Amino acid sequence: MYLRKASTNTSFELDNDSDLLRRRKIQKRILVAGGAGFLGAHLCERLLAAGHQVTCLDNFSTGLRRNIAPLQRFGTFSIIAHDIVQPMDIEVDEIYNLACPASPSHYQADPIQTTRTCVIGALNLLELAARRGARIFQASTSEIYGDPHIHPQVESYWGNVNPFGPRACYDEGKRCAETLFFDFHRMHGVDVKIVRIFNTYGPRMRPDDGRVVSNFIVQALKGADITIYGDGLQTRSFCFVDDMIDGFLRVMASPPSFTGPVNLGNPGEFMIGELAAQVVELTGSRSRIVHRPLPADDPRQRRPDISLAIGELGWRPTVALAEGLAETIRYFEGLLTRSTLETRE
Ligand code: NAD
Ligand code: UDP
């Protein structure tokens, strides 16, 4: 399926008309901003498999063409190279906003662009949703809670965020995006859905993503030192990607009265040192574990309270850490044998 550019360079029209959509029994026209990224590519695949017409919009800053290349087999998939910081127009029924680098090393590489993406990007997509009457989903984050004083984190907790530290471009950007989503909902009646995602991992992460699970697995497979930042006693709760995407779909299908924000994550809580030990065991690696300085403002502990997701969506994760790690290790082993863990394309 191809896209032709309409009169302005930021407006796109689909070649299909509604008759064709009906004939193909396509249910919805769905825009996935950030669709070439780790979570976005999984989401696009699930939506395509369910029979939807999916447009992936991405600036390929951290997304990879190889993540979405296999999706071209679906005749209902299309790709637009575009930065959400620029306005856009497209006929659409549902929008997922996943566009934003998620790894601290990536979002801190150009923090001003990260804030622009979080805030101006969200504004542009909300204006699109308001214009087209589309339902819109925001990939918010557990970073809303910063270095939390409440444990586990519940949605009603307002968080403990440093507003000018190195993580602020992301944390405050995502907080402002939540503000915009609720103001569009209150002022313009836009149908919004906000999920707060806790650390998620799995196949299609970049080998150079920089987040802890991919770092540890790649280091273990290469026999390189496994780098624990700080003492390794800080905790995270790791959710396997398939569970997370299942949560996204349930949130999007929920009644308009359910806006969120809702936590999505696996409540199993692990110290980073424990994660390193599990990766060493599962890979059979001889890597040494070494310690490096803890980055500024690194949250000390994190675990989602998922009572709201269980009660409202009937959602809870099903994949245990060891099982999800094993599948992720197989993915990176495949990459290693195909090449030397290349990072582009
Ligand atoms: P990712 O970096 O793999 O994917 C982000 C995608 O957005 C990439 O394809 C990138 O090229 C694209 N992108 C970035 N800036 C853009 C822009 N200005 N315009 C268009 N496209 C742009 O990250 P991910 O792990 O897949 O995360 C997806 C979303 O989920 C992000 O919004 C992130 O903040 C959120 N999230 C993820 C996690 C997690 O653990 N994976 C946790 C909390 C929140
Ligand atoms: N971390 C680590 N070694 C690495 C990468 C990360 O010890 O190679 C730590 C990091 O300091 C943090 C935790 O692992 O305490 C999770 O980091 P990640 O970047 O994956 O996510 P976030 O900090 O955003 O939750």
UniProtKB/TrEMBL annotation:
InterPro entries: Epimerase_deHydtase, NAD(P)-bd_dom_sf, UXS-like. It is a single-pass type II membrane protein. Residues 30-257 form the NAD-dependent epimerase/dehydratase domain. Pfam families: Epimerase (PF01370). One of its GO terms (biological process) is D-xylose metabolic process. Keywords: Decarboxylase, Glycoprotein, Golgi apparatus, Lyase, Membrane, NAD, Signal-anchor, Transmembrane, Transmembrane helix. Its main location: Golgi. This is NAD-dependent dehydratase. The keyword Signal does not apply. GO terms for molecular function: NAD+ binding; UDP-glucuronate decarboxylase activity. It is found in: Golgi apparatus membrane; Golgi apparatus, Golgi stack membrane. Its cofactor is NAD(+). The keyword Lyase applies. One of its GO terms (cellular component) is cytoplasm. PANTHER family: UDP-GLUCURONIC ACID DECARBOXYLASE 1, UDP-GLUCURONIC ACID DECARBOXYLASE-RELATED. It comes from the Bacteria.
